[in-house]
Automatic annotation (TrEMBL):
One of its GO terms (molecular function) is S-adenosylmethionine-dependent methyltransferase activity. The keyword Manganese does not apply. Transmembrane segments: none annotated. Keywords: Methyltransferase, Transferase. It comes from Geodermatophilus dictyosporus. GO terms for biological process: methylation. This is Methyltransferase domain-containing protein. Pfam families: Methyltransf_11 (PF08241). InterPro entries: Methyltransf_11, SAM-dependent_MTases_sf. Residues 18-120 form the Methyltransferase type domain.
Length: 254
């Protein structure tokens, strides 16, 4: 289940893609299959192990084109183990709402992006998320849970404060919003029959991609899409900051 639009993010063969808070690797897998050089980062040891295992399986199965590469590392999103200006694309999907110091994480994203590079940030949308919080404390008030709900304008303002330029945005996963409302209303740890039935619908949609659910989600995404996706770029270097090695050598010889 992908939240990011890879065509909007412009992931192509040879692109360096950093997947932050990769979880079990769903976004890393798609980037790898598109021929990218993928660097997947997560703090969880089990998540890192699972992502590495599945990327290896994709490679062994010949599902990635020649030239595609991957590495999976354990790291803190506030102190990324990645050099400055070294990646073309960053994906931060459903992770910033877990980080108390999200400003530091956004600054790290800006640091590692190459000038002209793009990040796709996805977070729970304010409206559907606020309903979940109102229905259940157990949904978010736990170790590693959600520490904030972003409004779209606030997220864009924080990205701007980090030195990024927000651009297009859209919503995703409208069919998932009612599922989480049901879980929160009936108990997030309760195995209710109606929740199981709805989950089977989501699995059917994910595996079969029937036209009826695809059309329904496209219609409902602007209204109740569970996730907000914002694309932002790091500004390209102005002409005065572009390094010209030949000029530097000439100046040094004077």
């Amino acid at each position: 289940m992908l939240t990011v639009d890879y065509d909007l993010l412009d992931v192509r063969p040879g692109t360096t893609v950093l997947d932050l808070g990769c979880g079990e690797g769903r976004h890393a897998f798609e980037a790898y299959r598109r021929g990218a050089h993928v660097v997947a980062v997560d703090w969880g040891e089990s998540e890192v192990a699972t992502t590495r295992q599945w990327l290896g399986a994709i490679a062994a199965g010949g599902e990635a084109p020649a030239g595609a590469r991957y590495e999976v590392v354990r790291g803190d999103l506030r102190h990324l183990p990645v050099p400055d200006s070294s990646v073309d694309r960053v994906i931060a999907s459903e992770v910033l709402e877990h980080i108390p110091d999200d400003a530091r994480a956004m600054a790290e994203i800006a640091r590692v992006l190459r000038p002209g590079g793009t990040v796709a940030v996805t977070v729970p949308r304010f409206g559907p998320e606020r309903v979940c919080w109102a229905l259940s404390d157990a949904y978010h008030a736990n170790e590693g849970g959600h520490v904030r709900i972003y409004r779209g304008d606030a997220l864009r303002a924080r990205l701007s404060a980090a030195g990024l330029v927000p651009g297009r945005q859209h919503h995703a996963h409208a069919l998932h919003a009612p599922y989480w409302w049901l879980k929160c209303a009936l108990g997030v740890d309760r195995d209710a029959a109606v929740v199981r039935a709805y989950h089977r619908l989501l699995v059917w949609d994910l595996t079969r991609r029937p036209w009826v659910t695809r059309v329904a989600e496209r219609v409902l995404d602007p209204l109740i899409g569970k996730s907000l996706v914002v694309y932002a770029s790091r500004p390209a270097l102005p002409p005065a900051e572009v390094v010209h090695p030949e000029r530097e050598r000439t100046a040094a010889a004077r």
